Amino acid sequence: MSQPDTETAARTGSLTDENGGEQTGTHQKHALHTNLKRGMEARHLQMISLGGVIGTGLFLSSGYTIQQAGPIGTILAYAIGAVIVYLVMLTLGELSVAMPVTGSFHVYAEKFIGPGTGFVIAIQYWLTWTVALGSEFTAAGLLMQRWFPHTPTWVWSAACIVLIFTLNALSVRFFAEAEFWFASIKVFAICAFILIGALTIFGVIPMKEYTHAPMFDNLFKDGIFPNGFMPVFATILTVNFAFSGTELIGVTAGETRNPEVAVPKAIHTTLWRLVLFFISSIVVMSALIPWRQAGVGESPFVLVLNSVGIPYAADIMNFVVLTAVLSASNSGLYASTRMVWSMGNEGMIPRWFAKTNRRGVPMLALCAAMAGGLLALLSSVVAASTVYLVLVALSGLSAVVVWIAIAYCQIVFRKRWIASGHTVGELKYATPGHPWTSWGAFILCTASFLLVFFDKEQRFALGAELVFIVFCYGAYFVQQWWRKAHPKQPVQLP
């Protein structure tokens, strides 16, 4: 059994609070009921960070994105999105190495912004993955219909639920190992797709309907922005949502061995892998498929593989997408569980949610997280046009809210670190280019959040998110009032 915060305090020293007093007790108190095990290695962390990003959005929805923004516009949007997420990850790296706390985001927000904001961030991030769980369980059942059309969809959804719950219940090591292999399949599929596409673009592999090497004519033949620039802007917003999941590095830091080595390594490989996998895939699709046809009916991956004569292309991609769904639901349940555990550990909800079994798994938090996913699944069936629509709108922007909080927390952390008499050289990992990197991440994420207003299709999401933020703050202050009015002895966990 490890105690991440006690170890961290010994390495990095104490911070000062707003009044200049040392926070040695505050930093170490998180370790009191921390019975999670450090079962993850660097290879797990790197694949989990990738697995949280690479999903059905790339395999299924990328063609629609190309059709809306055009080839160059889509490439530009993904490039800007990759820079934004990289800046956020650089700020998260400093926080995660200095304070490798499981469910870290709301702990940082509570410490460096305020307890009310910590509560809001916890609820926001929990909701993001809870809603994702419901949609992934549904997707798994639908994908299996291709091979077993006479079996009810709910049977396969139930099988997915049992599998993912079991992987998370066994131990963090089982979760990490399963996610490593799920993500590895996706990475292998994308690399194979890029290689086959590149050989086809240069004429090494023949392509139907082409008597010559396709090259890159399809990228430019209708102009750089065939539908104007506004669809590119809308695509940037979508790309931000697609890249959400990279922050899982922060969630896993408290259960990672040698976080001061593993976390920076995972962060620094994030940008070039995002560029390689996403932008290279978009370039291949756009070069081989006329952009007006890219979003019609079928995955662009299937269209390309069929055009070069790969047998069973649709079945291959169905398997890959199924793997992506299992990976996303596996990571989603883990992230949701650790956020519930962390809220219990911090006393935001009953502390018995922080209890762990002998394998270091918070089973009560796991059951609560799974219950949330099942409720999201139920709402997608019985109230898809009302309750579920609102949940999806909220979850879309919640990740961006978390990114804004991460960037601001790092800015405040660095100020307090210096004010307490420490130097930047004492940090095991310091955000490169601070403060420009940190403020760049904060401003770009805030702009991405506010400028949703100018996209008519996503304006509802912004309104719902702002209302929900106000509701969360209201719930926090009501909770605090109730606790003051009804004081009781805190529950001591064994």
TrEMBL record:
Q: Where is the Amino acid permease/ SLC12A domain?
A: 44-484
Q: Does the keyword Transport apply?
A: yes
Its main subcellular localisation, reduced to a broad class, is membrane
| Chain intervals for the UniProt region annotation (Disordered) | 1-31
The UniProt transmembrane annotation reads 47-66, 72-92, 112-134, 154-175, 187-208, 228-250, 271-289, 309-329, 361-382, 388-413, 434-454, 460-478
- Gene3D superfamilies given for it? Amino acid/polyamine transporter I (1.20.1740.10)
Where is this protein localized, as stated in its record? Membrane
Topological relation to the membrane, as annotated? Multi-pass membrane protein
Keyword Ribonucleoprotein recorded? no
Q: What is this protein called?
A: Amino acid permease
